[in-house]
Write a structure and sequence with these properties.
heterodimer; A: 377 residues; alpha+beta; B: 307 residues; mainly alpha; 3-stranded mixed beta sheet; 3-stranded antiparallel beta sheet; 54% helix; globular; binds flavin-adenine dinucleotide
Chain lengths: 377, 307
């Protein structure tokens, strides 16, 4: 057990830190939370800067420890997180890298890394949420194309995306897990209607998608026909396994700011609140150590992140909500002022126990796949 | 950075597990319960020979290992529910008190639990530990000590009237106690999961019911988070980190035992099942050296001083 970084790793950190100090001031001003096109431009500009500096692939090919350092340093420096590039960089991209053909990799991966193309995820449907495999959006083969009809929901960044990792049903007769196919759908294809959905935070960060005879070339299928569920498992392991890591650092920073605010406004003198902050400090510290543990483990085993991601996600999503609830205690009535720091974050943290698989579903996964308990209804 | 166990550490962990499985299996555990938690002197010496107490002493006379190794060893002790003043004797060995390192004498500590001394009647000496300083007293120096009916059948307790105040927590003592809690949490998790696979109701294993499944999943999550915290604290030796590790390990052990009891149903409420032994000890350890309230204050202090 060793928590010190090697000279090479420290060297990587030092160079990155230097680059961040020079590069971050060059980034244009951050757009407002409701300006989605502006946010796309901002996020992709940042990705382009990373690419030009040689950090474009850090989420994919870098050794896990290097990636950890990258996330830690960018977060500490206040750099943007992946944002609109989330799906492309963190799960569609890695899935294509693992499952795609050489042509597909050459076509789709470089634009993601350069920040030229943004992806979204069209998995969920109105009647297929946790029970994702019951999805009904149909794709019927017609010559060189699939003709896709159906609807998707909760598609984050759909309005600003160029591509969609889309799950469709290609065999209605087969058992539900066996008739699914993974397609890459261009978002400008005729027949796609995107209707933004307003979230409880007031913004429109996800959308409904209606697909009316959308033609997707057969060549844009990743994996074999009807083998999409297996490909999906690869996607989800990336999504759950590594996607939240950097945010722990952000939470630790927020907690420090919260302590400062509590000292400034006197709430620190309330022992109940103070101890709650103390407990959260222990919590996020431990979650950071768990992250290091998981990263070390994946460094050893290599490849696709392990199921430990579910353990992490379960605890982290609740801790994050507790963090912002505590922030509201520190703020008092100011917690109702949407322009105050932490108020919007408190609202967005409510999605953490739902998105990317609810806590109930994660507990099923932990119980069945790690602990080996029987599958149930 | 390689935050995984080294091969040597794995071997050590396995060795201790095998020793305890052989010498302190279920029968020995229940015998210890029947004997009111009395220390088995023969086993104590064997632990001494195996380096349990001398682990962190320099290689002349000791094993020459560090806190991470000690943590792995105490985790196994907690898993096996081994009884006796293990941490106190280990600290006495670190302090060079004769007879501690080789397990020929048993040392308890009067400053880990306010007013109460575990294994008092069983011990050769009572150590008051304040930081690195140690004062040794003998049971005969404390004639007013009165036996208490201990809730934990494996930890006999004496009250010293007028009390010995609890000392400011010594970091390694806090961490080794946390390591025992971690081992207990891991054990109750495994036990609950096994029972959930075996026990059938409504024509299926109860582990197929989601209410049961989710209890088990949460037990694992608490254990693994505590493990990361305890191991990291052993590596950094940072006191605030140690306090946080104790906080999370206490929670994992206490709630793990409670959830295990729930999974066991009526069987869980019996004397026969070992679950209550884990819970009672976990409650006791949670009060030892550092309470949750104290740990939270230390963490809050760490937050404030980082500003
Ligand atoms: C902010 C946000 C962004 C999202 N972005 C995307 C995206 O980009 N692309 C995409 O495809 N999807 C996205 N989603 C959808 C997300 O994956 C689903 O919301 C999630 O999987 C839950 O599905 P559901 O909403 O249909 O809830 P349901 O499945 O209807 O669940 C409702 C409740 O029932 C519980 N439940 C359901 N089944 C079980 C069970 N077997 N055992 C126990 N409890 C159960 C759930 O835990 C939940 O509490 C996003 C969601 C959010 C909140």
């Amino acid at each position: 057990m060793d928590l010190t970084y090697t000279a090479e790793e420290e060297d990587f950190r030092a160079r990155l830190r230097e680059w961040l100090a020079v590069s971050l001031p060059k980034l244009p001003a951050k757009p407002g939370p409701l300006d989605w096109p502006g946010r796309r431009a901002y996020d992709t500009t940042w990705q382009r800067m990373l690419y030009d500096a040689g950090y474009g692939e850090v989420h994919w090919d870098a050794p896990p420890t290097q990636r950890l350092i990258f996330l830690e340093e960018t977060e500490l420096a206040g750099a943007p997180y992946v944002g609109a590039n989330f799906v492309g960089l963190l799960h569609a991209g890695p899935t294509i890298a693992a499952e795609g053909t050489a042509e597909q990799r050459a076509r789709w991966l470089p634009p993601v890394l350069r920040g030229d193309e943004v992806w979204c995820q069209g998995f969920s449907e109105p009647d297929a949420g946790s029970d994702l495999a019951s999805l009904r959006t149909r794709a019927v083969r017609d010559g060189d194309s699939y003709v896709v009809t159906g609807s998707k929901i909760w598609t984050s960044h759909a309005e600003v995306a160029d591509w969609c990792e889309l799950l469709v049903r290609t065999d209605t007769e087969a058992p539900k897990h066996r008739g699914i196919t993974w397609l890459a759908m261009p978002m400008d294809a005729p027949g796609i209607t995107v209707r933004p959905l307003r979230t409880l935070a007031g913004s429109a960060e996800f959308a409904e998608m209606f697909l009316d005879e959308v033609r997707v070339p057969v060549a844009d299928r990743v994996g074999r026909e009807n083998d999409g569920w297996r490909v999906t498992m690869v996607t989800l392991s990336f999504e759950r396994g590594t996607a939240f890591v950097g945010e722990v650092v952000a939470c630790r920073r927020t907690l420090g700011e919260l302590a400062a605010a509590a000292r400034a406004n006197g709430t620190w003198d309330d022992p109940v609140l103070r101890r709650r902050l103390g407990r959260l400090n222990a919590e996020f510290r431990a979650l950071w150590r768990l992250t290091q543990w998981n990263v070390s483990e994946s460094q050893m085993t290599g490849g696709v992140p392990g199921i430990g991601g579910s353990v992490f996600k379960l605890r982290y999503s609740h801790a994050r909500q507790e963090l912002y609830d505590t922030a509201a205690e520190v703020l008092g009535p100011d917690a109702f002022d949407l322009d105050r720091e932490w108020t919007a974050d408190r609202l967005s943290s409510l999605s953490y126990t739902i998105a990317a698989g609810t806590s109930q579903i994660q507990r099923n996964i932990v119980a069945e796949r790690i602990l080996g308990l029987p599958k149930g209804r | 950075m390689d935050f995984q166990l080294t091969d040597d550490q794995r071997a050590l962990q396995r060795g201790v597990w095998e020793l305890l499985a052989g010498r302190f299996g279920r029968d020995a555990l229940r015998a210890a319960v029947d004997h009111g938690g009395k220390v088995d002197r023969k086993l104590w010496r064997e632990l001494g020979e195996a380096g349990f107490f001398s682990l962190r002493l320099p290689e002349e006379g000791g094993v020459g290992l560090g806190l991470p190794e000690a943590v792995l060893v105490f985790e196994e002790a907690g898993r096996a529910l081994l009884n006796g003043p293990l941490v106190a004797t280990h600290l006495a060995a670190c302090g060079g008190l004769p007879g501690a390192a080789d397990g020929t004498r048993v040392f308890t500590c009067a400053t880990q639990l306010r007013g109460l001394v575990p294994h008092f009647a069983d011990s050769d000496a009572v150590v008051d530990i304040h930081g690195t300083s140690m004062r040794v007293r003998y049971p005969k120096d404390l004639p007013s000590a009165r036996s208490v009916r201990s809730m934990d059948p494996l930890t006999p307790l004496h009250r010293i009237p007028g009390g010995t105040p609890k000392a400011p927590p010594r970091p390694d003592a806090v961490l080794l106690t946390a390591a025992e809690q971690l081992g207990s949490a891991a054990r109750t998790t495994e036990t609950a999961v096994q029972y959930a696979k075996d026990r059938r109701q409504f024509g299926q294993p109860i582990g197929g019911f989601q209410a049961v499944k989710h209890l088990c999943a949460q037990m694992l999550v608490r254990t693994e988070v505590a493990r990361a915290a305890v191991y990291a604290a052993a590596v950094t030796e940072d006191f605030a980190e140690i306090a946080g590790a104790k906080l999370l390990a206490d929670e994992a052990a206490v709630r793990g035992a409670r959830d295990c009891l729930q999974v066991y149903g009526g069987m869980g409420f019996t004397w026969e099942a070992d679950v209550h032994l884990h819970l009672k000890r976990a409650w006791l350890r949670a009060q030892m050296w550092l309470t949750a309230a104290e740990a939270e204050e230390i963490q809050a202090e760490a937050l404030a001083s980082a500003l």
